[in-house]
Design brief:
- The complex is a heterodimer of chains A (273) and B (670).
- By secondary structure, chain A is mainly α.
- Chain A has one domain: MetI-like (MetI-like fold, Orthogonal Bundle), CATH 1.10.3720.
- Chain B is α/β, with parallel strands linked by helices.
- Chain B folds into three domains: 231 residues, Rossmann fold; 71 residues, no CATH class; 246 residues, 3-Layer(aba) Sandwich (Rossmann fold).
- Chain B is 31% helix and 23% strand.
- In chain B, a hairpin with a 2-residue loop joins strand 4 and strand 5.
- About 4% of the residues of chain B have low confidence.
- The chains are: A mainly alpha (273), B alpha/beta (670).
- Chains A and B meet through helix 6 and helix 7 of A and strand 18 and helix 15 of B.
Chain lengths: 273, 670
């Protein structure tokens, strides 16, 4: 039970913080000089940062940035990537060749470096972070979807469907995409984790959210300088990222089981024949 | 008996721990004598492999031996500590497995792998085992042993790899060789080579062989004694002769009756009704009772004991062979005589002429075409309505590609495919898609040929949706029900997933799916090769019935000659992308004219007691279709090759209305 409730709880909390953050009476930017680098206490549960700002408030506000970036980037890049990969593999020939060369160009750059360059050119800001991470991220899904579909499309059940005269759209949607769902879900859950960390990285470099706005990544960047005197500054956002990533991965595993009709835990409903 | 090498008493092996462990092996007694070949015969899941693994103590993690004793000579194997057991494995007992491809380590040379076994089990060889390894390679009939010593497994063919496995097993000079379906993954001509080799080695070394198989033909070929296993128990033990003359257990008899063959052509094959009972419970009566034709009251009340009979035979049955004379089969039911004499006047349904399918081999960055795999290289065939053409040949000969190319999947490189006079190679797009309802395909592996995420009802309905058959959902639904009933599936099948069915039932679903679009021709690509013989009989019966009911034509792709003899009207024999001989089933099987057909037919093991016939041994393996030999493709292996054969591929010689053969031997006569 822990394996479902714990991750679901963490993710719900994350969503809640992201959605309700602006409505709460938080003061993430209030500078409180007497409490500079103060540790966790009764008044400020998670302590204060180097400008005396309350870390709990900043953590809640930062959740919004992380959430928007992670969910946005994973959604857009998985949709675009799977579409591109599926089309390339299914069509084959020059379409495949062309798309694969484009993907190779993207892969030739080290991912985070390309994102840094893009974010640098476009200027800092959350929207640009999303674009930069999407540009880097979709190729992974495209590669995965292409490889999976290439091996599936020669399978007997696909050949049988073609032999029955089934159309291309139905073959892709009924016979190919449902069968690659499992590896894509795994990829996407790792993707969410990876994007939270990548956003933290970009913010750490000053390319993400701009001060005084908070994100978990920028909080770690700020805290890193005071690691020895005030470790709570790094620990709080670090643990938050860890929990989210863990929850997403645990839930991804479960999701795969739920979507598999062969699994005893399947939640797919049986049409009444 | 004093010369018993291996004695197993009351062996019980369980799989799984939970509340209901499966009794995979449930109280087996057997004795194997020095130098004999003992065959364990049974269908999949009967526990024969588990017995072998129990002897080697190599059970999977979920398996454990819960009772019994196993003695190899004077050693009690079950009492040995693990490190002493390691010396027995590969030492006094060697084992070879079904899949030679996965049994060898791909990153070590063949020599290294044999040397490893020699170093462990044959310390007499000192530090340099090379001489012994080459001796072993020679013993298993591998040409150029010095050369092969340095080669990797992927450079060897399947038959060669199995020989290497045998060499590894022989390294410890075993007294007992356990062979678990050693030839099941091999072609018949290669199987004949390997079986002959095992026989020869046995005579030289005097080792005993425990051979596990499902193939009655292999039993007839090599066995001294046979034990038949059913549902975790041995139900019959008999000397080979007696077993084939008069099998005592009803299950054994059913097995014989369900093998297809020439003499059974006109009638239905016997089937064993029902399925093997689940082994996770206690039995009050005979395990076979629910499927037995001769079942009596006592069979359900009391577990039958072991009844020894004369001549070393024994059976686990209350009949005690008393109902004997019934033995090799009163025909189950005589069906209508086959619709014969139809070949003449009818226009052929399908005509294939000079069909070629070449797959380009790409190389380099620019994917330059550097050669072609000539999978199919000029094949001509014809099928009339309501008839069955069997395409036979060994793996890699292009028979499956022929079947798929007829369906335009893939598109042929050249040649013509005319279906009812329409040229399919010129159809494309929507026109071809519409036409697809006329010709369907059934595959070898029914599980892989169904989308695992679709319900059986949706699978069967798919073709109707694609072809616009049935006005609305309700009509289609009714039709799905009819189809499933027609192929002999229960009514509730539509609402379940493919993985919930057994292999035979899955193949029935695939037949129903093909029938849904009302085809005229069904291409059957080895539809029964993955099934047990009794299940195979059910599917063959079903195909026969459907042919009679709807006048379907079949293009039956297979490597199994007994199936061909049972249901084909005409036969085409393929070798390396070409048809070497074509004719009616009687012509080809009774009087094969092409040397390859003769060799192929002679290599098929016959399930008859005196069935040890003269095998025409083919040397070597089939060459690669990307680089076929010049002239006649078969000449490097042909026992009757002449100079002429190397010069040009022989023209097809037409001998009669139905028969053509491509061989220079016949050219001369005419």
């Amino acid at each position: 039970m822990m394996r479902i409730y714990l991750p679901v709880g963490i993710l719900l909390l994350w969503c809640l913080m992201a959605l309700a953050g602006p409505l709460l009476p938080l003061e993430p930017d209030r500078i409180d000089l007497p409490h500079i680098l103060a540790g966790p206490g009764v008044e400020y549960l998670l302590g204060n940062d180097d400008l005396g700002r309350p870390i709990l408030d900043r953590l809640v506000m930062g959740a919004r940035t992380s959430f928007v970036v992670a969910v946005g980037v994973v959604l857009v890049s998985s949709l675009v990537g799977v579409l591109a990969g599926a089309v390339a593999a299914y069509a084959g020939g020059w379409v495949d060749l062309l798309l694969m060369r484009i993907i190779d160009v993207f892969l030739a750059f080290p991912g985070i470096l390309l994102a840094i360059a893009l974010a640098g050119v476009m200027g800092p800001g959350i929207d640009n972070v999303i674009i930069a991470l999407f540009v880097v991220g979709w190729v992974g899904y495209a590669r995965l979807a292409r490889a999976q579909i290439l091996s599936l499309k020669r399978r007997d059940h696909v050949i049988a469907a073609v032999a029955l005269g089934t159309g291309h759209v139905r073959i892709i949607t009924r016979h190919l995409l449902p069968l690659i769902a499992a590896p894509l879900i795994i990829e996407a859950t790792f993707g969410i984790a990876g994007i939270v960390i990548a956003e933290a990285g970009l913010s750490f470099l000053g390319l993400g959210v701009q001060p005084p706005a908070a994100s978990w990544g920028s909080m770690i960047r700020d805290g890193a300088r005071y690691m020895l005197v005030a470790p709570h500054m790094v620990l709080a956002p670090g643990l938050a990222i860890l929990l989210v990533v863990l929850a997403v991965n645990l839930l991804g595993d479960r999701l795969r089981d739920w979507l598999d009709v062969r699994s005893a835990r399947s939640v797919i409903e049986r049409k009444n024949w | 008996m004093s010369d018993a090498l291996l004695r197993i008493k009351n062996l019980k092996t369980w799989l799984g721990n939970g509340e209901a462990p499966v009794c995979a092996v449930d109280g087996i007694d057997l004795e194997i004598h020095k130098g004999e070949t003992f065959v364990l015969l049974g269908e999949s899941g009967c526990g024969k492999s588990m017995t072998a693994l129990s002897i080697m103590r190599l059970l999977p993690p979920a398996g454990r031996i819960v009772a019994g004793s196993i003695f190899l000579g004077e050693t009690s194997l079950l009492d040995l500590p693990e490190n002493a057991m390691r010396r027995e494995r590969g030492g006094r007992m060697g084992m070879i497995f079904q899949e030679p491809m996965t049994s060898l380590n791909p990153v070590l040379t063949v020599g290294t792998q044999i040397a490893e076994a020699v170093l462990i089990h044959d310390p007499g060889q000192g530090r340099d085992p090379r001489g012994r390894v080459i001796e072993l390679l020679k013993a298993v009939g591998i040409p150029d042993p010095e050369q092969r010593y340095r080669e990797y497994p992927h450079q060897l063919s399947g038959g060669m790899k199995q020989r290497v496995m045998i060499a590894i097993a022989l390294a410890g000079r075993p007294e007992l060789l356990i062979a678990d379906e050693p030839t099941t993954a091999l072609d018949v001509t290669i199987q004949a080579q390997v079986l002959a080799l095992m026989k020869e080695l046995q005579q030289k070394t005097g080792m005993a062989v425990l051979l596990i198989t499902h193939d009655l033909g292999v039993v007839a070929e090599v066995a001294d004694r046979v034990a038949v296993m059913y549902a975790g128990q041995i139900v019959e033990v008999a000397p080979c002769e007696a077993f084939f003359r008069a099998p005592k257990h009803p299950y054994s008899r059913k097995l014989f009756q369900s093998i297809p063959g020439r003499e059974k052509r006109a009638r239905r094959l016997a089937v064993i009704r029902g399925t093997v009972p689940p082994l996770d419970r206690e039995f009050d009566g005979c395990r076979f009772a629910d499927r037995c034709d001769a079942v009596m009251d006592i069979c359900r009340r009391q577990v039958p004991g072991w009844t020894p009979l004369a001549g070393g035979q024994g059976v686990r049955c209350f009949l005690e062979g008393g109902a004997g004379p019934d033995s090799t089969g009163s025909p189950p039911e005589a069906a209508a005589e086959k619709t014969g004499g139809r070949q003449g006047g009818h226009p052929p349904l399908l005509e294939v002429e000079n069909l070629k399918v070449h797959f380009p081999i790409h190389k380099g960055v620019f994917r330059r075409v550097v050669g072609h795999v000539r999978a199919v290289d000029g094949v001509s065939l014809g099928i009339s309505a309501g008839r069955t053409l069997a395409v036979v040949g060994e793996s890699g000969c292009g028979k499956t590609t022929v079947g798929k190319a007829i369906l335009q999947l893939p598109r042929p490189t050249a040649g013509s495919v005319r279906f009812e006079g329409d040229e399919l190679t010129r159809l494309s797009g929507e026109a071809l898609r519409r036409r697809r309802s006329d010709f369907q395909i059934i595959f070898q592996d029914p599980m892989a040929s169904m989308n695992p995420r679709m319900l059986v009802g949706d699978i069967v309905e798919e073709g109707m949706l694609a072809q616009g058959i049935g006005a609305d959902a309700r009509q289609r639904r009714a039709r799905v029900g009819e189809l499933l009933e027609q192929v002999g599936l229960p009514a509730g099948a539509a609402g379940r997933y493919p993985h919930e069915f057994s292999g035979g039932q899955r193949q029935r679903i695939c037949v129903a799916r093909a029938l849904a679009v009302q085809p005229k021709l069904i291409i059957c690509d080895e539809p029964t090769s993955a099934l047990d013989v009794s299940v195979q009989a059910q599917i063959l019966n079903l195909l026969q019935e459907l042919q009679q009911a709807y006048g379907l034509s079949y293009l039956f792709i297979t490597h199994d000659i007994s199936v061909v003899a049972y249901l084909a009207h005409e036969v085409a024999v393929m070798y390396l992308g070409r048809v070497v001989e074509r004719g009616t089933v009687t012509e080809v099987l009774e009087h094969p004219l092409h040397p390859y057909t003769q060799a192929l037919l002679s290599a098929v093991p016959v399930a008859e007691p005196g069935g040890r016939r003269q095998v025409i041994r083919l040397e070597g393996d089939m060459p690669s279709p990307s680089n076929p030999p010049a002239g006649c493709h078969f000449h490097p292996r042909c026992p009757q090759a002449m100079d002429k054969c190397q010069k040009a591929y022989p023209e097809a010689v037409r001998l009669s209305e139905t028969r053509t053969v491509s061989c220079v031997l016949l050219d001369q006569d005419s």
